[in-house]
Amino acid sequence: MAIPGLHLTQIGRDNFLLEPSRSLDISIGDELVVAILQRLQQAKAGTLYYDLAELPLIEPRYYRWLNMLARACRAVNVAMVCIRMQPTAAFALSRYMEGVPDFAMGQEVTQ
Amino acid sequence: MVKQTKNTSKILTELLKLQIGNITERIEREGQTVFGGSNLLESDEIADLCIQFLQLLVALLESRDPDDDASPQFHALEMFFNNLSKQILVRGGRIEDLVRYIQFMQHTLIDALGEDEKIKVDDARTILLYLSSLFNELILAVFQAYLSEKERTIWAQEAELRETSTPITEIWDGVLTLPIIGTLDSSRTMIVMDALLNRIASDHASAVVMDLTGVKNIDSQVSHHLIQMVRAIQLMGADAILTGIRPDIARALTSLNIDLDNVTTRATLSDGLKEAFRRMGIQVSHKAA
After folding, report:
1. Which residue from A58, B53, B111, B127 puts its CA 20 to 30 A from B151's CA?
2. A107 touches B at CB < 8 Å
3. In sequence order, which residues have a C-beta less than 8 Å from that of residue B161 and are 6 or more positions away?
4. Which pLDDT score is estimated for A88?
């Protein structure tokens, strides 16, 4: 079952790679979270890698969506790691974020 | 510029042609005094620029409209002084000397005008006003060139300073060090962060050791910038380690209620590097005796 605006691929035994596309609509964020978690639970996933390589900027709304997804993943015992954040996105995000994000950060898929 | 009549342009052109030897000699001599003595220009260069100036002036006077400051002839004259100004500045000359030299050129032409007794008072007045207006424009061109050259120099110096103020060094594969010296204001933070984040991305760095030994004072804004830098480094997936926080800065941070809970700190740069290596699973030890 395809999730609109997202490409979810199993990479290894219990790792998943999530690649957002341009058509991702975070206004239906709740529905997307449910769809993603269903897939992760079915496959008994352990880690979800969220690929941010195509995002030059992360605005507050998108950041809230990332945090929400990370918290939801944690609730079903899946760790979420955002990878390949661009310097421009990190720079902008660091200026308005308060506290620590709910997701872990990494450069590449490590496992 | 002041309106020239066909007649006054002709008078001035003829005057220049008739007294070319005298005018050239005087301008050239002055050029030798101003620029030759300080070795800014060679004798040949001074002679050439004198001839070139008079040729360009004659070309302007013989053009369809000598008052048109948008004409190619006027532009050529303006560019001539523009280039001369740059040349003098590059060689370490002073703008004041060049302006005085241009004024001398004007006075020489006025003197030559006074020596011709056939010129009517009205024509002489128009020519004088024209020359004054023309030379004002040329002096302005020289100042513009001077200012743009100065701006370019300042910009280049700033760029060099920026480069040297962010000495990001890859001290080991994947370990970057950044000694921060002086004050971190908003604009410098942006420059440092931009350079640092791009280095993390290009070098795939997994740890950044930021050494604050050279930071003398800290205020809430600076500490906010520091936390912001640490966050940005972490968002890129790298570890940030702060080292060399002086005791008085540590005290200032506590009074500013800065939360360093998620920031790794070590006493010295050496300790910071050891921590970075430990996290990467690298062990550096003394050679066994």
Report:
1. B53
2. yes
3. none
4. 93
